[in-house]
From TrEMBL:
Top-level lineage group: Bacteria
One Pfam family here: PilZNR
InterPro entries attached to this UniProt entry: PilZ_domain, Split_barrel_FMN-bd, T3SS_YcgR_PilZN
Protein known as: Flagellar brake protein
One term of GO molecular function: cyclic-di-GMP binding
Domain Type III secretion system flagellar brake protein YcgR PilZN: 21-111
Residues annotated as domain PilZ: 119-215
Amino acid sequence: MKAKVASLKAEDAVKIQLMRPGMWVDIQADTPTATKRARTDLIGIDQQKNVFIVRMPDESKYGNLRDAIYATNDVIMRLILEDETGDVVAFKSVIRSVMAQPFNYVVVDFPELMQSQSLRSEDRSRITLPVQVSIDGVEGESFSGHIVDISANGCRLAVPAEQKMAVMKNRQSIAMRVKQADNKMVTLRGVVKNLKQAPLQHFYGVKFDEENQDALKAIWLPLALKS
């Protein structure tokens, strides 16, 4: 039976957008007598057909899987969005088809619901905070983006994909300028630790420099008063 993708929550749709080819996938399915579980990788996502495409797990490593991985059987998939949100994402869905040619791929419907659990040792506050970003040592104008979550030690920065000049690299030092309600500018400095490119936005994990405490207090106090 096909999953009812129309009921997918907005936050789950965002998680799907953050999934990337090459991510490890844990896939679990039942046979009449046992549960089989194997590790494979994500090949891609077809958002028009509402399906995930994963590689058929290596049967030389996991043994015969054809009695568990077949069209119409239920499947549980788990992925780690470690660089993006720090979440383990798990969901139950249905195998739509198993391809043998030209490659051994498994096609899985989008689920109705996803569950997630954070792997991070500290909580991050989900926000939408406009910033102007500049890259140390790179001449040119600053570009706009949004901090989408923040903690005492770092943040996740989203930059519209159409800003071609805004593509940053790992280990680059950056400055993010935030306008306060009184029009004063506060600057957060940090280093890019990871990056992921989505169709509409690029996401950057940024680790803050140690001297950001005063700037963080200036940003967090107004946010706390609004909550």
